[in-house]
Design a protein that fits this description.
By secondary structure, the protein is mainly beta. The chain is 5% helix and 50% strand. The strands form three sheets. Strands 2, 5, 7, 8 and 9 form a five-stranded antiparallel sheet that branches. The longest helix is centred in the middle third of the chain and has 5 residues, at 41-45.
Length: 107
């Protein structure tokens, strides 16, 4: 099985990184430029990106596909994911962020 998603609306050629944390933030943290962080920042500080940086295509898109092993130990796993894309000049922080995405693994 695979988990499939896509990034869209980013800058052409922008570098995207996907971050995941075990828990969402207690409440979204506004970081400027209309962006908010939905991840547990304590966990993000100690973790590297799950994927990236990876360049977006000429349309500012990036298809994502993660293979998922057939492992019953993953049942009940909860992760929160968010994409961060460098976008110089888009706002004062030169980054655009996706919404947060809650992921729940079943069996």
């Amino acid at each position: 099985a695979s988990w499939v998603a896509s990034v869209s609306g980013g800058p052409a050629g922008g570098l995207a990184s996907v971050y995941t944390t075990p828990l969402p933030a207690p409440s979204p943290l506004a970081v400027g430029g209309g962006c908010s962080v939905y991840l547990d920042l304590g966990a993000v500080v100690i973790s590297a990106p799950t994927l990236g940086p990876v360049p977006l295509d000429a349309l500012g898109q990036l298809p994502l596909a993660y293979p998922l092993p057939a492992d019953p130990n993953l049942a009940g796993l909860h992760l929160t994911a968010q994409v961060v894309v460098g976008d110089p000049g888009a706002n004062p922080i030169n980054l655009v962020l996706s919404n947060g995405l809650d992921l729940f693994f079943g069996w």
